[in-house]
Give the backbone structure.
Amino acid sequence: MDMPRPGGANGSAVELVPTGISGLDAMLYGGIPKYDQVIVSGGPGAGKTLMALEFLYRNAKAGETGVFFTLEEDPKSIIGNFKSAFPYFDDLDRLIENGKIVISGRDVADDMIKSDNGVELQFGHIVSELEDIITTEKATRVVVDSVSTLELVVRDQPFYRKSMWALVVNLRRLGVTSILTSEITSLDRKSLNFKPEHFIFDGIIFLYQGGDEATRRVQTMEVIKMRGHRHSFITAPYDITSNGFKVFSPESMTT
Ligand SMILES: Nc1ncnc2c1ncn2[C@@H]1O[C@H](COP(=O)(O)OP(=O)(O)O)[C@@H](O)[C@H]1O
Ligand SMILES: [Mg+2]
């Protein structure tokens, strides 16, 4: 499964792709290893969709073409939510017009209701649609939001795991660096439960919601794994501000 990866600058064993997200790159000692597929997991409202889109936005500003492949919300509502959450990202429209950010995808649940296709065919369709768009747009950065939706179209857990595996192999073959999101039911670290997708991806970032819900929700982020690369082991608080995510990692305070 592992493919050799080219070496990078600054003595790092691998070439890194900065996420561009404030505080997160310090936690990642520079970024995500190039060509890796990273899963960002959290409960509803944790900010998975916005964080994945900010990754594409920051990378688009650095000249990289990104595809945002949605499996649950329609592209218009994704753009609307992004603009309302991040009003300072005023060049988003320009990046979309110039094809640096391509928002595509489908409502899988809706497809399932309307279609009488077999489940395996559905999954195959989704993956080949994603591959087509990556190739056509010559994208180097990809988001799939969220892979949990694919659980709906597969018949059982072993098949879900196999399907995730196929998705990762295809993305790696296409030479892209990706963030894929997934839903978890446990919102705090103590009741963390791993799902099949966590054993397949190169990197894992968890978003937790803890604290006293009655007064203030505390949102924190942890890098669980980043294959072949150093990362912070500290769970850091984060905020979703009008100018993007702010991760308050100790590493970001000292740099
Ligand atoms: N316009 C906004 N202003 C401030 N915060 C917002 C805005 N829109 C979304 N958010 C924050 O982002 C969260 C939703 O982010 P989203 O990425 O859609 O979550 P997820 O994909 O994890 O369900 C909300 O719970 C809220 O905290
Ligand atoms: Mg979402």
User: Anything to note?
Assistant: The longest helix spans residues 119-137.
